Amino acid sequence: MGALVLALNPSIDAEWRVTEARWEEKNTIQSERRWAGGKGVNVARWLRHLEGEPRLLLPLGGATGKELAAHLRREGLPARFIPLSQATRVNVIITTADGRQLRFNPPGPKLSGAEWGAVLREAEQLVKRASCLVLSGSLPQGVKPGVYAGLIRLARRAGVKTILDCDGEALAAAVAARPFLVKPNEHELAEWRGRVISTREGLTRAALAMSNQTGGWVLVSEGRRGALLVNHRLKVKLAARPPKARPINTVGAGDAMVAAVARQVELGRGPEDWLRWGVAVGTAATQCAAGELPPTALVKRLLKRVEIIR
Questions:
Q1: Helix or strand holding residue 228 (H, E)
Q2: CA 20 to 30 Å from 123, out of 30, 97, 99, 251?
Q3: Whole-prediction pTM value?
Q4: Could you tell me the residue range of the domain that residue 79 belongs to?
């Protein structure tokens, strides 16, 4: 088995296309598109696109849960479903004619103690055969912020590296459990640091501070500016400048980056490859509609144009 991807709060993503978003006026939806979404699902989709063999573990409930499971089966994404009594959420993306987006994400279902126990038991079994563990996205209601930290420790006991992408209280608790690699964006890193980050030097200091706590790698996604990869213990500071590309969509670009890094870790490649592939694949994700995948030829072209700055 390849990477085990936990998507604890997956969603149906619904994109509504409108001419423009008008406040306090009727907005006519010109088209609607729905697909299996949420950060963990996006990561698994990209991992398979990059020739990995991921397995998803996700709790699903209600009619939307059935809809999401049907999407995954049609895509051929291997997944283990844990049934919930409450319905899986629907995230709404409103895209205007000029490409701007509004995003609305509900908190999702509330898991009972028994439902969370079923997720944890399945994770304990699956992680033993995984190449790495990817923890990505928000936590559902009813689950304590420290659960990612517990899952990181579980993976470590099994000899499995963890790649983490979350925010808020869950991130603060998980950092203390020392994951192999954390991928915050600039806002998430500033929130964790507890202060505004206004300079490149400040960003680097914050990333190194997080790396010092985890003892591992921190990859900061910077949108159009690329990414920063640091390791405090190994005294590594690398940056990557992305190729110029006008974005069509930015939903899921960070998830694509996480998947690319996880795949390179699986393959035994080094940090420069993690960074180069992460930025190339994240950029490629901006060149297609949300929930869709670009040709692998585009990824390879972009890969050649990523500049690594040591």
A1: strand 227-231
A2: 251
A3: 0.95
A4: 4-9+37-88+123-309
